[in-house]
Structures are given as structure tokens and as C-alpha cells.
Amino acid sequence: MHSERGSFGSQSGVILASAGSAVGLGNIWRFPTEVGRGGGAAFILIYLGFIFLVAMPVMISEFVIGRSSRSNAIGAFQKLSPGKPWVAVGVMGVLGGFLVLSFYSVVAGWTLHYTIASAFGQLTAGGQSSVDFGQAFNSFVSDPWQPIIYLAVFLLLTHLVVARGIQHGIERYSKFMMPMLLVIIVLLIFFSLSMPGAADSIRFLLQPDLSKVTPEVILGAMGQAFFSLSVGIGCLVTYSSYFSKETRLVSSAVNVCIIDTMVAVLSGFIIFPTVFSVGIAPDAGPGLVFITLPNVFVLAFGKMPIVGYAFALLFYVLLLLAALTSSISMHEICTAFISEHFGKSRRWTAIVVTAVCLVLGSFCSLSFGPWQDVTIFGRGFFDLFDFTVTKFLMPLGGLLMTLFVGWYLDRKLVEQQLTNDGSILVRTMKPLLFLIRWVAPAGILVIFINELIDIFI
Ligand code: PFF
Fold first, then answer.
1. Residue 230 Cα to ligand 1 middle (Å)
2. Using N-to-C axis directions, what is the helix angle for 249-277 and 56-69, rounded to 10°?
3. Which of 330, 334, 390, 393, when mutated, tests ligand 1's pocket best, judged by the most ligand atoms within 8 Å of its CB?
4. Residue 290 neighbours by CB under 8 Å, 6+ apart
5. pLDDT digits over 274-315, tens only?
6. Per-domain residue ranges for the chain?
7. Cys staple from 8: which of 13, 26, 382, 389, with CB 3.0 to 4.6 Å?
8. 379 phi and psi angles, rounded to 5 deg
């Protein structure tokens, strides 16, 4: 049975594929938006605390569950605790996989549209600043058809990678795309820091103003940390089920967290200098990269056409590649479960998953246009899916997985996984187990309860 499952071919493949899952729209689109709203440096500090004290222990717990069971998100719990209700954690994960892929692909589809538009020079508008990008964005996303077509193309790209399997699909593409992504980031930082707003933005990103910290900012920071590291919905249980017995779980997790955090902070350094240069408030919200930035590209084009054009194109290519390495990991949660549970081929299963997400994604897309008034619990489809995954399934899944590994699983098995059967020394074993057993669950619980009180009372 095991030999039929795919596996990653190398330690670098493991790190790049997991980092590929982590680095995505969450880092380049969502992080700067949250930083802008949360007041800059203070948000970043709190975020860092959540990444290393809460989200990283969840990631390591997922790795332990995935590699020790060598099974998909649901199968893992069935194997490690047969007949027990823990399997519900896996079920939530697979459902979450469908929801997250559906709404994420909508924004990825917008990115695809903007990539093509920038290739045709539409976002630099020949250096003429009379174009109203806000209106262009709104009329594009509220169109009934156009965004759905881009959504479909993006899902098809995701599908093609996943259908090819672990080593030939996911690992190969991650190994190619991740280094490319880093090169583009360095180029963009170089552009950005030469903008006149660089000094203000560095102050904004590095000097904490604690008066901006509200309970909401703290909540936002935790949600962002979970989303950014892809933890809590079994994505990394699934990926780690393809790790080899030599893969070092702790150091892989630390590497992934560092890469992900670096990319998020660097994206801040790409976006804010440009935003400050044109004098736009940094808390512009989700339109930041689709409305604010094109204004900057036009400005740059007016000064140096080649630089403006390259800046715009490279930025959206970066966003698109990052979205793709993440969407394949969401797809894999669902594909791995269905194909293993029902004994169907990967190719056939991938088609089913893609088709379901195309339908659900279309609902999300329509909620920006013709279905604006269709709401469930007061939210349109896009908001509802986003909310269910990031504010509910991820924290709850993360909480249950740290409890599962910290308190339910046999301590020997956990230590065997972390030390690769005693062949490596994990000096931080005690503090790490303390984080998994106490700090992470307590942190999530306090914030989660606060959130629920906020919503329902
Ligand atoms: N971590 C991804 C990002 O930051 O864009 C989003 C994500 C990937 C969420 C995979 C959930 C997931 F299972």
C-alpha cells in the first residue's frame, strides 16, 4: 500500500514544497493589508509571536500526524485513533480544503487577469495618471463572467500540477517556482526602495506604535499566522505523509516558518514604499495590490517606462506563482483523501476536486457582482468561506491537533518522529513539547473564545 503512495524525493523538495504551500497570496496580498490596518510594526511583532509560539508548534504537530500515519488528512486520524471522534479533525480539514481552494482561486484569478493586463501595458497606461483603477477593479470583479473564466483557467493550472503526482508534479514545480519567486522579490525590493517613500515606510514597518494594538489586531494577527503557514486544516498532514523517514521534522518546520516570515516582511518592504510614495493611506484594505499599486506603476512608467513596465509585470507574476504553489497544496488535501479513501486514480479524483471547486468558486466570484445580495448568516459566499476557514476551521483544527499530539498520542511515538527514531538529537525537545502541550493550545483557546463571544454576543 505504502509503495503506491507518492513521496518527496529530497529534503530540499520537502522544504520547498511546504514553503510553497505557505508562501502565497497570504504573504503578498493579505499580510500587507493586515499590517496596514494593524498599524505597522506593532502588528508585525505580535504576528511574529504567534508564528513561532503558536503556529509553528501546530505545524510540527501536523508533521508528526502525517508522517507517522502516512495517510491523508482523514485517514491519518483513523489510523492513529481508530473508532475515536478525532477523525472529525480530518473531516474538517478536507471540507476546509474545498472551501479555501474555492475562494482563494477567485483572487488568484484576478491576479491572472492583472498579470495579462500588465503584460499588455494596461496597468502602466502609458504613464497617464488619469485612469481610475478603483473603478476598473470594481467593474472587473463584479462582472458575471470574466472573473469566472480567469478562475477556471487558474484552477486548470492547479489541476495540471496536482494530477501529475507528488514528485513529478508538486515537488518539481515547487523546486522551480520557489527560487524564481525569491529572485523576483529581490528585484522588486530593489525597485521599491529606490522610491521616494522608502524612509517613511521603513519607519512604519520597524517602529512599533503600541497604541494601535486592540483585541481585534491581536485576533487578526493569529488568523494571519495560521493562514500564512497553511496550518490547521490538514494541508501539512497531507504533505508530511509524503516525507521520507530521513526528513527532519523540526528543522523543516523552522525553515518553512523563516522563509514564510521573510517573504511576508519583504512584501511589506515592496508594497509600502510604493504606497507612501504616492501619498496613499497604508490601510487601504484588500484593494491595496489591485488598486493602489497600479497608480504607482503608472508613476514609475512616467519616469522610466521600462522600469515601470517591468515592475508591474514582475509583481503580478510573483503573486501568480506564489498563489499556484499554495493552491496545489489545498487541492492535494482533497485529492489525496478521495483517491485513497475511494480507491480511485489520482487523475480521476483531481478532475472531481477541480470541478467542485469551480462551482463553489463561481459562487464566491458572483458574490462580488450579481449575487451581492445573496447572503447566508449575513455574509456573501466569498466572505462566508473566508470566515469559516480562517476564523473557525483553522484555529479549531490547530487547537485539536496540538491536543492530539501533545496529550493523546503516545509520547514515545511523538519523540520517535521528532528524532527520526533516535538518529538525530533534538536539543529543544522539552521546550518544544511544552509549546505543543500548553502554550499553543492555551493561546488559541483564549483568542478563540474571545472571538466566539464577539461574534455571538
Ligand atoms: N498559506 C497560503 C498563503 O499564505 O497564501 C494559504 C493556504 C495554503 C491556506 C494552504 C491553507 C492551505 F491549506
1. 4
2. 140
3. 330
4. 110, 114, 133, 137
5. 878 777 777 666 678 898 788 878 878 888 889 889 989 999
6. 2-456
7. 13
8. -125, 145
* Residue at 223: amino acid letter: G
Residue nearest ligand 1's atom 12 by CA: 230
Q: Which value, to the nearest 10 degrees, does the dihedral of the CA atoms of residues 49, 229, 208, 37 take?
A: -130
Give the residue from 195, 326, 325, 179 showing the smallest Cα distance to 270: 195
Res. 1: pLDDT tops 60: no
Burial class (CB in 10 A: 0-12, 13-18, 19+), 135: exposed
Q: Looking at ligand 1, which atom is closest to the CA of residue 394?
A: 11
Cα-to-chain-centroid distance, residue 291: 21
Residue in the block written with cell 493561546:
443
CA 445, CA 457: separation in Å to the nearest integer?
17
C-alpha cell at 113: 487577469
Cβ(99) – ligand 1 distance below 6 Å = no
Rounded CA gap, 270 and 314, in Å?
A: 12
Q: How far is the CA of 457 from the centre of ligand 1 (A)?
A: 30
165 C-alpha to ligand 1 centroid (Å): 19
Task: Evaluate: CB of 326 within 6 angstroms of ligand 1.
Answer: yes
Distance 261 CA to ligand 1 centre (A): 13
CA-96 nearest atom, ligand 1: 13
- pLDDT tens track for 327-341: 999 999 999 999 999
| 311-327: average pLDDT | 94
**Overall residue count recorded for the chain in this entry:** 457
Q: Which CATH architecture has domain 2-456?
A: Up-down Bundle (1.20)
Q: Which amino acid is at 262?
A: M
If you measure from the C-alpha of residue 390 to the centroid of ligand 1, how many angstroms do you get, rounded to a whole number? 10
User: Per residue in 177-202, pLDDT tens?
Assistant: 899 999 999 988 888 888 887 888 88
Place of cell 478562475: 151
Q: Residue 40 carries which DSSP code?
A: T
Measured in Å, residue 27 CA sits from the centre of ligand 1 at 9
For ligand 1, the distance from its centroid to the CA atom of residue 89, given in whole angstroms, is 18
Ligand 1 pocket check for 398: Cβ under 6 Å: no
